[in-house]
Each structure stands twice: as structure tokens, then as C-alpha cells.
Amino acid sequence: MTATDDGTLLLRAILDNPAENTARLVYADWLNENAGTAGCVCHGGALYSHDSLFPGQTPVGVDAEGRLLYGTRCARCGGSGTVSDGRRERAEFIREAVAYPHCEFVRLTGGNPFQLLGIPEPEQGVVVGPRSDDPLVNDANRRTWMWGETEDFGCVVHDMVRELDYRVDRGFVCGVRCRAGTWLRHADFLTAAHPVVRVRLTTMSGRDIEAICDRVRERFGRQWFDGSQSMYDVLRAAWPRITFELLGE
Question: CA-based diameter of the chain, in Å?
């Protein structure tokens, strides 16, 4: 059994028994034992700007347009060019979330929720505030997530790039709010790595309905449809473990 297989089997135990804490803690132990490093998003330990940080700073090069670039040590990796792969941080978060489930949202908003939840972080964020002619300013103003309290879905982490709202329970995503097309693009990953039990779909187009029906046809064949099924029946057939809500109904 390889480490990857072991992690997959442990995740499956969590998906099969979402109410149990033991499987989550065993998975956290596996994450901690298999933690490592990954390359930082910076350029070999340095970040670059068009502005000098102090008088007399020596430029380190020029950009594609010939403008001077000044380098500074990356605060994220400390100049090493490598960072944690996130497994150790995720393991600690799962343990804390199981022990103190009502405090996990505070931890999420105080760190990187993508890392803590084991969700790949988008490479490009959304520019918050006025755009600038300087692309480096825009890069500095990019955000990939925000959080908030919603009236109909509780506290959520909002994935600004994928346009998904995540509800969290004991270290894992338990609920998702998004458009139907967005759910179709990300459902396979989320349902394989998180015990999602509730999904609220805010909009659903005719194309989305056809794509969901195609998913059911691939699984059960065309004979499954006899004309009596509601949209909830179709969704339940496609994702039997999940309770769906359609906004406005």
C-alpha cells in the first residue's frame, strides 16, 4: 500500500462516516507523518517591485518593458524558495477543529483557508479595489478568498476565484453554495476529499440541467428517466449522499 493509497482510503472512511471523529483524527496523523515541502510562489526566495524599499537600493534587473526591478526577501518562505506543503498545518487544524468545533472558523480566517482545508489555491486572485496601470500593484491587491456571515447559509469561506461558498465542520467542507455550473466543475474534487452533505444551488440554466441529466444517464442509462422525476430526484441520483436546495424554491 502506497502513501497515496493510504491517504485515499482514510479519506474514504471519513466520507462513509461523516459523523465520526476517529477517522478524521487518524487522517490528521497520516498528514503529519507524510508532511513535506513545496516550491514557493516567489522567484527563488525573492519578491520584486518597481519601487526601491530604501534609498540607494541596487536594482536586481529589469522587467519585460525595461523598467528597473528591486528585490526583497519573500516573507512567506524567508528567502529559502520552499514552503510547507500544507499537510502539517492541515493536520493541526483538523485536530483543533475536532476538539473545538465552534472555534474553527476563527482559525480559518486567521490563516490560509485553502491550505487548512486542503483545497488547491488558485494561481490568480481577484483584484480588490481600483485597478492600477502597474501590474505589480494589481498583483499585490489580488485576493483569492474572503469570509462572512450569510443569512441563509451561516459562516462561510468564499472562494473568490471559483465562486464557491464553503461551510466547514470539524476540519472539512460540509456544505457548498454556488451556481449549478460551478458545482458541476468542482463537484468531483470536493466530494472525493470532503464529506459534503448539503449543497445550495443559487442558479441553474438549461445547459446545467442537461449536464446533470447526462451524468445520471451515464450512471443508470436512459431508461432511468420515465418522466416522473423532479429536479431533486435527478440531483439525488447524481450525488446520493447530498441534500440539495434550489434557491427560490
Answer: 77
